[in-house]
Design a protein that fits this description.
Length: 328
């Protein structure tokens, strides 16, 4: 991500706000984190890691759950600002819908750290910092896996999250670009299952009645993929259809180990959380947010061939190196 220069007035306002923060930092530093939804396995895991990593640095953190509601999340970030948080953060719920929360941070001169997902206009704010994984790579990994293992003239279904979420736009782009290596693979249709296990299951049940056959169902997260697995198992079709996910949740890894889920692109929740805690520590210590680099943590591809490596630890977090892009 590239951070573009703001007007002199906004830069001065941010600097003034950060100057005030630096004085207060001798006694305390307060961070607010608005989680997208604790119902998502990955979001819940990330929340726990972030809280642990931030508190280990002696930083106070307020944590809320938006329950997948963008308006609720925006209100929670407003509350953080009212409570004089020195920095606000979120797994931002919507590319456009989360803009009011970003604008509130801009007006208050407070840094905004967006984890995993992006917010429109973030690159124009010098106090905006992104921490996550290169989502195009997750889709690319899924596509490359399918190109290698699918039979000739294969047909697939694509189960997505919300269409106005940059991470899912990027994952779809990576998938379609990789599938272009073969002209005999057809995407029959695309369904927004809202990354829900229940919708993943019910949509699969509908698809089993609507299509004569298909070879794979590709999901943009593990929760939906596990719902697909459950529906296919109930229909006695699991051996005939590949199921792919993203995130590397504990349940997904167990499903791969059991020979059910075919593969997942694992996000390193611990690595992402620790990167966020490091950023908050830099801000506490007086760093200029405009000089703090965005952080990208690579995905780890997990299949039956290597799943044991990830079941034994924290998903390879200790061995994962952050790929950082300097603010420009």
């Amino acid at each position: 991500m590239m951070k573009k220069s703001m007007s002199i007035l906004l830069t001065a306002a941010l600097a003034a706000a950060m100057g005030t923060t630096a004085l207060a930092a001798e006694d305390s530093f307060l961070v607010g984190f608005a989680n997208n939804s604790d119902t998502y396995n990955y979001c819940a895991k990330f929340r726990a890691y972030l809280q642990e990593a931030v508190e280990a640095k002696g930083i106070e953190i307020m944590v809320t759950d938006a329950g997948g509601d963008t308006n609720v999340q925006n209100g929670q970030i407003d509350d953080f600002i009212v409570q004089n948080a020195n920095a606000v953060s979120a797994i931002s719920n919507d590319l456009d819908g989360s803009v009011p929360a970003l604008n509130a941070a801009i007006d208050a001169g407070v840094p905004y750290v967006s984890f995993l997902t992006s917010v429109n206009g973030g690159d124009d704010y010098e106090g905006y910092i992104y921490v996550g994984s290169p989502n195009v790579d997750a889709g690319t990994a899924q596509g490359e896996y399918l190109v290698e293992v699918l039979p000739e003239d294969a047909k697939i279904l694509y189960f997505t999250g919300e269409p106005n979420d940059q991470q899912y736009i990027d994952r779809k782009q990576g998938l379609t670009d990789a599938l272009a290596a073969r002209d005999d693979i057809e995407i029959l249709d695309e369904y927004n299952v809202q990354n829900s296990k229940d919708l993943g299951m019910s949509t699969t049940e509908d698809c089993l009645m609507s299509y004569d056959s298909f070879d794979a169902i590709v999901c943009q997260n593990d929760d939906a993929a596990l719902g697909v697995v459950q529906a296919l198992k109930s229909a006695g079709m699991l051996e005939d259809v590949l199921v792919l996910g993203v995130d590397g949740s504990d349940d997904a890894l167990a499903s791969i180990k059991a020979g059910e889920l075919s593969m997942t692109a694992l996000q390193d929740a611990k690595g992402q959380a620790e990167a966020g805690a490091d950023i908050f520590a830099q801000l506490r210590d007086g760093a200029d947010p405009a000089e703090i680099e965005d952080v990208y943590i690579p995905f780890q591809i997990v299949t039956a061939d290597n799943v044991d490596e990830y079941l034994d630890g924290e998903g390879g977090a200790e061995e994962t190196e952050a790929v950082s892009e300097a603010a420009e």
